[in-house]
Structures are given as structure tokens and as C-alpha cells.
Amino acid sequence: MGENQFFQDPAFARYFFHSLDLMPIPTLVSSPVYAPDSDMEVNRQHLHVNRAFVQQLGYRLADIPDMHSWFAKAYPDAALRADVLQRWVMAVAQALADGEEQVQQPGLVTCADGSKRWFEVQAQIRSNNAQYPDWHIVTFKDIHHLRVSLDQVQLLSDKDPLTQLLNRRGLQRWQSCHSGDAGLVLLDIDHFKQINDRFGHNAGDHLLVIVAQMLLRHCSVQDACVRWGGEEFLVVLPGVDLAGTLLFAEAVRQQLASERLNWQGITLQATLSAGCTLWSAGAPELVVLQQADQALYQAKQQGRNQVVAAVLP
Fold it and tell me: Residue 53 carries which DSSP code?
């Protein structure tokens, strides 16, 4: 019996699939489905899912008989599914160009019970030995706890621990997902050192949190609200012109100036100054920040508790 005939023998297939059932890693085996009168692969028929696959992902072979049904169940959101498929197509093309036989991608998979878990999916994409059957073996390594932990660390590293606003690192990550013109506001709490000196740093921290919450109430979900350092805050308003940026800053200024803040029975009264500018797409960050900082400095020099627009070139 030749090697290929040996692999196609039903007895061997049963033995092979039984061996996979002893593995603790979820595993799926598939074979190609070709278009009629063509060698173009249009789908893959699933031949076996092992016991660990059923236990960890919840799907049986009857639930996902082929690759199309697998992607429909594992990624029920159509937009996400299209994105995942595109990433797999690109990864497979690159692996084939590099002469690789396997490719791997992380994926947030929807399990049969509706829960979502992260898996490192490693798929065989070809065999270099023509005597072997064209079976592809796909394994699913559960990385959910690791991925969630990394995401939590990432989130914590992007936020200021006191105010829960973005920090400078978080702003950089936000910038990587946003482009286009935006309004920019640099705000500073007036006489903040005097509040710390008179009432203590806990009172100062309380005031910082109050201002941060106030800024968030005025911001939309696409805006970046950042604790820039000390008593300074920075807000980026995508798609907002200079007039709209001034209105935003003025609304925040007026609200803080009109409120009496209570801290342990003590009434705190605070104001802020702000400098506003435009961040045009492609403009150097340092130049834009200098414009806002100069406008903020002018607001301080003119008596504080006011909003000043930068002089744009």
C-alpha cells in the first residue's frame, strides 16, 4: 500500500482522529473542496474536531461542517468576520510567498455558548509532500487570560491613575487611530499651588478629579481628554474648528468658575485658564503644542480665568 493510500485508509483515519482526541489542545482537521471542473479551492470540509475542541469551544462537527460555517459562527458580526478573513488571506499569502507551511493569527472567537475567548489559531496551509493527503490541521491555543491581562496592563499604562484620563502615552495611542484636523485646548487650574499649600494635597487631588470629570462631561466619545501633567489638562476635539474649540473651553471655564466645590466641609473655589489652537492634519505636534502653550501663557498674563485663542500663521 502506497503512503497516500495508507493515509486514505478509513482504519488509519479512525486511529489518527482518536489520537487527536487524546491531545489537550483544540484541533480541527479539514480537506479541500474544489469548484466543479477546476482545481480552485472554494471551501474546506471539516473531517474531525477533537474532544478538546468540543470541550473548550463548544462546537461539534455537525455544527461547523465546513470553513464557511465555522467563520459564520466564530465571528457572527459580518464586519468583524470580513476583517478576520482579510487578515487570514493576507497572512496566508505572505506565508506561501515565504515558503512556510503554517500560519498563525490571534482571534477573539465566539464560542458555542455565546462567550468570547482569545485563541492563538495555527493553521497548516499546505504540505510539501505530494504523497500525503491534503488535510489541514488547525490548532487553537487558549490565550484568553494572557490577552485580557495584557489588555488591562495596556489600559492602565494609558491612563492617569488619579483622574482616569488619558496620559501622554494614551494620547499617542489615540493619535494612531485618528487623523484629520482638530481643535486643541490646553487648560491649567489657576493658583493650584495655593490650594495645595492651604488645604493640603488631598484637597488638590480632589480638585483635579472634579475638573477631569467636568471635562469628560463636555467631551464626546471621540475626543481625547488628557491629564497633561500637574494641574494641566489637554483636550483634542476631532473635526472642530477654532470657533467651536473656543466655545468648548469657555463652557468649561464658566462651569468651574460658577461652582462651589465641597471637600470635607471646606468650600473650594477654583478657576482655570485655557489656550486654544487648531491642529491641522500633518502639522508637527510640537508646533501645535507651543501655539496652545503661548495662548495659555497669554491668558495667565491677562489675569487668569479666561480663554485665549492662539495666533495662527
Answer: H
d(CA 53, CA 37): 34
Q: Provide the CATH number for the domain formed by 3-150 in this structure.
A: 3.30.450.20
Strand order in the sheet with 307-309: 224-229, 232-238, 182-189, 272-279, 307-309
**Position 218 confidence tier, pLDDT thresholds 50, 70, 90:** very high
Question: Predicted confidence band at 71 (pLDDT cuts at 50, 70, 90)?
Answer: very high
Please list the active-site residues. 231
Residue type, 305: N
List the alpha helices (DSSP H) in 75-167: 78-97, 144-157
Phi, psi of 161 (to 5 degrees): -65, -25
Q: Rounded to two decimals, what is the model's pTM?
A: 0.55
What would the DSSP string read from start to end of 179-222? -S-EEEEEEEETTHHHHHHHH-HHHHHHHHHHHHHHHHHHS-TT
What is the domain partition of the chain in residue ranges? Answer: 3-150, 158-309
> Which option is the CATH number for 158-309: 3.30.70.270, 2.60.120.1680, 3.40.50.1820, 3.30.450.20?
3.30.70.270
**Residue 303: what pLDDT?**
96
